[in-house]
Design a protein that fits this description.
This protein has one domain. 85% of the residues lie in helices and 0% in strands. The longest helix has 39 residues. The chain is mostly helical and 341 residues long. Belongs to the autoinducer-2 exporter (AI-2E) (TC 2.A.86) family. One of its GO terms (cellular component) is membrane. InterPro entries: AI-2E-like. It is found in: Membrane.
Length: 341
């Protein structure tokens, strides 16, 4: 009996490896599909609102997609020039930062610690940090080069959304299955919509605050804050690094300290106070799972996978929690705060 179980586990593990290999090889197709899925989930409340007002399905979808395209075009126009100018000036900013490396080296020498400027440069590589920040934004932009396919997929998903549960009901006929699917979709939609709104709020606050301070490319860092806010804890730190460094070389140490304080306050207020109250603590992931999911989805689907890593893991956790046979996996992914309560 024991040997039978071991054989079963090996078969399951082999199946998982085969599925992951298939996903990785088909990432060109899967990434646009996932982007379409998340966009459709986020836009679904607006589509449902138009439907509730008695507007026909086709007209509702047309209105939603028009609003989305106008918003996307506005953001792309503002980002395009900023990314190009910033990429052209990275070397200049890196040279300016080398002066601070010399100050750190001199201060360390006064304490009897021998640190060369090259060592500091390798430790705090501004060019790499800046290139990583812009590559995240550019990679998301490149995904929308197949914009027509993504938008078309979103249209079909929105039109199909209201009939999906009815199809399952007709095919299965069991009320428990229907309730199970409705619960999963409801939780996923609530999470994605609320997370997108909170991330948008974070990005707007960062943009306006950095514009007031006078940091270059404030809108760019606002977009980065919006995108990386989908990654709890780690995302806000990654988003802060390029903004702090650019402020340091542009406006000086005091302004850089102010920007650091700004990101800390935003992270504490929105991440620790606003978000738990709005979204609740039931969907929390442990910090270890956040980090591992970031590595895993990044390896599987690239930078886009890193940005979607937490929503994908949250979706998996919701599905695991909704099934008694897989609830133990959901518990392993959780923070563990509610175990002793």
């Amino acid at each position: 009996m024991k040997e039978h179980k071991i054989g079963y586990y090996f078969i399951v593990m082999a199946s998982v490896v085969i599925v992951l290999a298939g996903i990785k090889s088909a990432s060109v197709i899967i990434i646009p599909f996932l982007l379409s899925l998340f966009i459709a989930i986020i836009l679904s409340p607006l589509y449902n609102y138009f439907n509730s007002k008695g507007i026909a399905d086709i007209l509702s979808v047309t209105l939603v997609i028009t609003v989305f395209i106008l918003f996307l075009a506005f953001v792309a126009k503002l980002i395009g020039t900023s990314v190009h100018d910033f990429s052209a000036n990275i070397d200049t900013y890196a040279q300016k930062l080398s002066g601070y490396y010399q100050l750190i080296s001199t201060y360390a020498a006064s304490l009897g610690i021998a640190i060369s400027t090259d060592d500091i440069s390798n430790l705090i590589n501004m060019k790499q940090a800046m290139k990583f920040a812009t590559s995240i934004i550019q990679s998301m932009g490149s995904m929308f080069t197949n914009g027509f396919i993504i938008i078309l997929t979103v249209v079909f998903m929105l039109l199909e959304s209201q009939y999906f549960v009815k199809k399952v009901e007709f095919a299965d006929g069991h009320q428990e299955t229907i309730a199970h699917i409705e619960t999963i979709f409801s939780k996923i939609k609530n999470y994605m919509v609320l997370k997108a709104l909170i991330s948008l709020l974070t990005g707007v606050i960062v943009w306006l605050s950095l514009s007031f301070i006078g940091t270059d490319y404030a809108f760019l860092w606002g977009i980065l804050a919006f995108m990386l806010n989908f990654i709890p804890n780690i995302g806000s730190i990654i988003a802060a690094i390029p903004a702090v460094l650019i402020t340091l070389v542009q406006l000086g140490a005091m302004s850089a300290l102010l920007v650091t304080l700004l990101y800390t306050v935003i992270n504490v207020v929105i991440g620790s106070i606003v978000e738990p109250k709005v979204m609740g603590k039931g969907l929390g992931l442990s910090t270890l799972i956040i980090f591992l999911s970031l590595l895993f989805w990044g390896w599987l689907l690239g930078i886009v996978g890193m940005l979607l890593s937490i929503p994908l893991t949250i979706m998996a956790k919701i599905i695991f929690d909704a099934n008694q046979n897989t609830q133990w996996i959901g518990v392993l992914l959780d923070t563990g705060e509610n175990i002793n309560k």
